[in-house]
Write a structure and sequence with these properties.
Strand content: 25-35%
Structural class: alpha/beta
Largest sheet: 4 strands, mixed
Oligomer: single chain
CATH class of the largest domain: Alpha Beta
Strand order of the largest sheet: 24-25-1-26
Number of domains: 2
Distance between the termini: 11 Å
Length: 450
Amino acid sequence: MSADGAIETLKVRGPARALAGDVGVPGDKSIGHRAVLFAAMADGRARVRGLSGGEDNRSTIGVLRALGVQIDDVGRGEVDVVGRGLDGLRAAAGDLDCGNSGTSMRLFAGLLASRAFASRLVGDQYLHARPMRRVADPLRQMGARLEGHSGKKEGEVYPPLAIGPLPSGARLQGIRWTSKVASAQVKSAIVLAGLAADGPTTVVEPERSRDHTERMLSYMGAPLTVDGLAVTVDPRGWDGKLVARDLVVAGDLSSAAFLLGAAAAIPGSRVTVRGVGVNPTRTGVLDALRAMGAIIEVSNERIVGGEPVADLTCTGGALRGIRIAGELAVRAIDELPLLAAVAAHAEGDTTIADAAELRVKESDRIAATAAMLRALGVAVEEHADGLTVRGGRGVTPGVVESHGDHRIAMAGAVCALGARGETVIRDTRNVATSFVGFAPSLAALGADIR
């Protein structure tokens, strides 16, 4: 354990016996980012409940405080936010540190693109290796001043990002942007810039990405419409004010997926995760697990803060290989490393395709997932936009390098549950960015992990 309490190495001993239990998960960090950020843009005070407590959400809170927003920590995942209005942010005294959070950096790039003051967005070494051109290009077309570094790839844009200021009296121009990839972060950045633009802004995606931004901004009174794969924000005639609303963050499906996936991989398991967000743009992982043969039950369905929420129960059993591609791959993009780990325990091949987006996450997740599986004795073939896992041939203990990527670390832990012996997973500090309490939660279900 490091000086700040983060766990630097995970050790998993298998083979695990059947997992069983009833647990909760931290709040969805994607929703948490937006809840705090949009509350800061609103007029009035609001309470946000159910934040994950992870480092990524804390990075967003830290940046907002540096921009002059009063955010009081109530405790137990709750904060009170005193909104400054859409135009009330002030210039920070120094760099704005997004830590490891790509969502924070991309959303703030959109929000700050319209400001009359300059900002500089920075992060850790992993975030500085993530490409930002897909955000920079549309924002520049709107008239934003945004500069980064070309890094290793000519024409790409890498952090730190220097943004603004816009000339005195100038405004961004509304655009119609057709995205080459479905990305909620890119879409949200353009929408945030569009709220302060002169004229309507439309984003069209090739597939439907997660829609937390659309749901929450609409709930708070933003002039936003959705027409199929197109999202439009039109500030003409709008008073420029978001309504301050208390918000509750649903449990994180991406975190729950690791516990449900562990249950699916270990025969005889039955695990329930309570209070999980089941937004249909996010439930691809559940559809994929079902297709592989896991039994997923949904109960106690309700609406929390505009988002659908339910309790999820997974019963493990015989699994089979499947193909994950197209719209399903988009809806399960963050959970694909976990699905690859589960696929190692399925009979036959599992192919993941149409997932080139994984190349530009916290790590190159295609390469990192393949390396993780090979370290555990699993045969895998890497493709430009995915990989093929040769399942059903057994898993052996090994040493896994997470490359500082929380999802690779957790996927490795799930995969290692089926190995006979101890597996060591290195560089796991960043697990705390998304799933605080991952190891204790898995241990509470019966896994030998520490």
